[in-house]
Amino acid sequence: MIAETARAKLNLALHVRARRADGYHDLETLFAFVDHGDTVNVAISETPEFSVSGPFAGALADEGDNLVTRAERAFCETFGISAGHRLHLEKHLPVASGIGGGSADAAATLRALARLHEFDLKDPRLFAIADSLGADVPACLFSVTAIGKGRGERLQPIAGAPGTPVLLVNPGVAVSTAAIFARWSGDDGGALPSGPLLDVAATSRNDLYPPARDIAPEIGGVIDWLESQPGAGLVRMSGSGATCFALFESAAACAAACKAAPPHWWGVATALV
Ligand code: C5P
């Protein structure tokens, strides 16, 4: 059996540049990953099956199709694999929450299958499958700090800030990414500034925050609360929300804020990788 971690993705910055004819938007975004996520287990099996466990399993249990099984089907078709697989997902990340849970699961499935069948992770066919599964899946395939352009698939890795304490908080509202993008103002957010990761993050925005806050006002409450926490630095919403994050000057301050979060919010004190 092969196990792969599906790390949560953060958009430290997200500038929306333009609407495209294919229904997507051109972006400039700063992808980073944290030391917390789902786990995908894959094994060859004569009786193919998909199962899910963990705190957010319920959100997926009723879906006949999901990004893990879709990734497995695309992998087998592309690489001509006739063996069946047993797939198990441990779901620790809230779904539809702006931290790429489904995208990371799809990417982890592709990495696990590539290891199992001994294909190179840099095989361009793997990237092509990732690209076909969703805008964030290519970034999640490598799970390294990177600038993403196009719809997020044109990736330029940049030096990260590993170990930086980060608190993730979600107020428990699921938001539709398509609905948030549809409410974007249409004003070109401009290019991301250049420079070291944390400088770029500090001098940029998430252009999806205003439309997300319109649709789910709870998100504004989360941002205000994070900004009031001792030791919090950069505070921002990730992706199309509703998960927001704060970078902290110390792991102790991050853990203290996590403990102080309202009990009906989902919160995790972790760190950038
Ligand atoms: O690719 P994915 O399925 O994750 O995207 C979900 C939806 O988010 C798309 O159907 C699209 O409406 C929106 N989206 C977008 N521009 C992007 C990424 C996502 O408009 N760059």
TrEMBL record:
GO MF annotation terms: 4-(cytidine 5'-diphospho)-2-C-methyl-D-erythritol kinase activity; ATP binding
Pathway annotation: Isoprenoid biosynthesis; isopentenyl diphosphate biosynthesis via DXP pathway; isopentenyl diphosphate from 1-deoxy-D-xylulose 5-phosphate: step 3/6
Record GO biological process: isopentenyl diphosphate biosynthetic process, methylerythritol 4-phosphate pathway; terpenoid biosynthetic process
Catalytic residue list: 9, 136
EC number assigned by the record: 2.7.1.148
Residues reported to bind ATP: 94-104
GHMP kinase N-terminal domain sequence ranges: 66-142
Pfam families: GHMP_kinases_C, GHMP_kinases_N
Keywords: ATP-binding, Isoprene biosynthesis, Kinase, Nucleotide-binding, Transferase
Domain GHMP kinase C-terminal: 208-256
Catalytic activity: 4-CDP-2-C-methyl-D-erythritol + ATP = 4-CDP-2-C-methyl-D-erythritol 2-phosphate + ADP + H(+)
Domain of life: Bacteria
Protein function: Catalyzes the phosphorylation of the position 2 hydroxy group of 4-diphosphocytidyl-2C-methyl-D-erythritol.
PANTHER family in the record: 4-DIPHOSPHOCYTIDYL-2-C-METHYL-D-ERYTHRITOL KINASE, CHLOROPLASTIC (PTHR43527:SF2)
Similarity comment: Belongs to the GHMP kinase family. IspE subfamily.
HAMAP family in UniProt: IspE
Protein known as: 4-diphosphocytidyl-2-C-methyl-D-erythritol kinase
Source organism per UniProt: Stakelama tenebrarum
Gene name in the database record: ispE
